[in-house]
């Protein structure tokens, strides 16, 4: 494996206590692309993302950032180039939206560095992009789940990193806001060239928005490549245990998974209220 991508793993093994979760995973994250990690619950998706962000120390193998083991690099140095939105982040009690988003600028500031015009512009742009600017003075703990999620994404965007890792960024968002948020992230990738890695549950949205898909099952990579290469009936059956048909999405022309499920007999017609009298 060469150093052709900025972020990659070599035979990475991760776990907690006596439980091994990710097994000898080698993957290169394509630079400047949107990569989505998919798989069933408890297959190691979030653990892999935490490993990439150096929140979980490898039990074997290595995570490389620019060809160097990420755990050997200073925390602040890593934070300038790699941002992370974890699952279910917790805000300090009473913090307002603008202050939370502003915390994304901390890696760019020294001990004695004052808030700069660049910092203010980055925070304002992040809030405008995520439609949270009008919430700037609101306390985060007073917001709805969907509003809070957009604020957290704004903080990640304000960090202004070249690499952005997002664990379930569409959590708590209704379907309209899910599409809106994924559109935003793809636009960010196109405009800034930001390399984005996301964990998503929705396979069809993953296929629509990803340039590169990584399918995990039981902590191992089952398939990797473009959505057309990964989202096949055989792979979906292997990874999710789901009988399915894959057709073309009529809007995006990407693979669309249609679950087959079990045959359910037709239900008897309901009696009209008049017939019961």
Automatic annotation (TrEMBL):
GO terms for molecular function: ATP binding. Pfam families: ABC_tran. Coiled coil: none annotated. It is found in: Cell membrane. Keywords: ATP-binding, Cell membrane, Ion transport, Iron, Iron transport, Membrane, Nucleotide-binding, Transport. It is a peripheral membrane protein. This is ABC transporter ATP-binding protein. It comes from Nocardioides potassii.
């Amino acid at each position: 494996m060469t150093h052709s991508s900025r972020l990659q793993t070599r035979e990475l093994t991760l776990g907690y206590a006596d439980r091994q979760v990710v097994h000898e995973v080698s993957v290169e994250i394509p630079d400047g692309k949107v990569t989505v990690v998919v798989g069933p619950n408890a297959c190691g998706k979030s653990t892999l993302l935490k490993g990439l962000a150096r929140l979980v120390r490898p039990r074997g193998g290595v995570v490389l950032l620019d060809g160097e083991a990420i755990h050997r690099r200073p925390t602040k140095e890593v934070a300038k180039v790699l941002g992370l939105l974890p699952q279910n982040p917790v805000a300090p009690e009473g913090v307002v939206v603008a202050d939370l988003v502003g915390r994304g600028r901390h890696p760019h500031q020294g001990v004695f560095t004052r808030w700069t015009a660049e910092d203010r512009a980055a925070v304002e742009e992040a809030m405008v992009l995520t439609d949270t600017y009008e919430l700037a003075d609101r306390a985060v703990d007073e917001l709805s789940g969907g509003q809070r999620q957009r604020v957290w994404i704004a903080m990640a965007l304000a960090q202004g990193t070249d690499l952005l890792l997002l664990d379930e960024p569409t959590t708590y968002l209704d379907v309209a806001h899910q599409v809106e948020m994924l559109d935003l992230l793809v636009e960010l990738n196109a405009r800034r060239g930001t390399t984005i890695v996301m964990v998503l549950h929705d396979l069809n949205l993953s296929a629509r928005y990803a340039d590169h898909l990584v399918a995990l099952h039981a902590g191992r990579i089952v398939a990797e490549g473009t959505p057309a290469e990964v989202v096949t009936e055989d792979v979906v059956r292997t990874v999710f245990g789901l009988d399915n048909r894959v057709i073309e999405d009529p809007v995006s022309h990407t693979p669309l998974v249609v679950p087959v499920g079990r045959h359910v007999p037709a239900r008897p017609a309901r009696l009209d209220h008049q017939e019961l009298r």
